[in-house]
Amino acid sequence: MTETELVQKIIAYVKNSGGDAWHVHGSAVQRAGEPDIDGWMPIGPFCIHFKVEVKIGDNQASAIQEVRLDMYRLGGYAVGVVRSVNEFQDLIRHAYLDGLYVRLNH
């Protein structure tokens, strides 16, 4: 599976779960190191805002990607490097258990 295919699977999982997510494409007008996926995931009456970097195999986040993830972590986002939908689900689960959620406004 390619990184792009995994990004699409994670986004589909989020949308099928009632949340929203989008692929952040790098470009000349985008600042370097932004995480691959931005979005939010509902958990009962709450939601978790997240930014994740997607990697395949042994690929590692670059130094600037790690800086961006740390910056968003300080801002209260659930962040991490994921290599599968299961790892993404674990990231969301841990974020919930750590209290990184806000109440949904219905």
Walk me through this protein's architecture:
This protein has 106 residues and is an alpha+beta fold. The protein has one domain (3-103): Trna Endonuclease, Chain: A, domain 1 (3-Layer(aba) Sandwich). Helix content is 37%, strand content 25%. The protein contains three helices and five strands. It has helices at residues 3-16, 63-74, 85-97, and strands at residues 20-23, 37-43, 46-54, 78-82, 102-103. Strands 1, 2, 3, 4 and 5 form a five-stranded mixed β-sheet that branches. The longest helix has 14 residues, at 3-16. The protein is globular. It starts with a helix and ends with a strand.
Question: Could you give the topology of this structure?
Answer:
Elements: H1 3-16, E1 20-23, E2 37-43, E3 46-54, H2 63-74, E4 78-82, H3 85-97, E5 102-103
Parallel strand pairs: 3-4
Antiparallel strand pairs: 1-2, 2-3, 3-5
Structure summary, number of beta strands: 5
Structural domains: how many: 1
| CA distance, first residue to last residue | 37 Å
Uncertain regions spanning at least 5 consecutive residues? none
Q: Sum up the overall morphology in one term.
A: globular
Which CATH first-tier class would you pick?
Answer: Alpha Beta
Question: Mind telling me which CATH architecture this is?
Answer: 3-Layer(aba) Sandwich
Question: Helical element count?
Answer: 3
Provide the descriptors you would attach to this structure in a database record:
25% strand; 3 helices; alpha+beta; Trna Endonuclease, Chain: A, domain 1; 106 residues; five-stranded mixed β-sheet
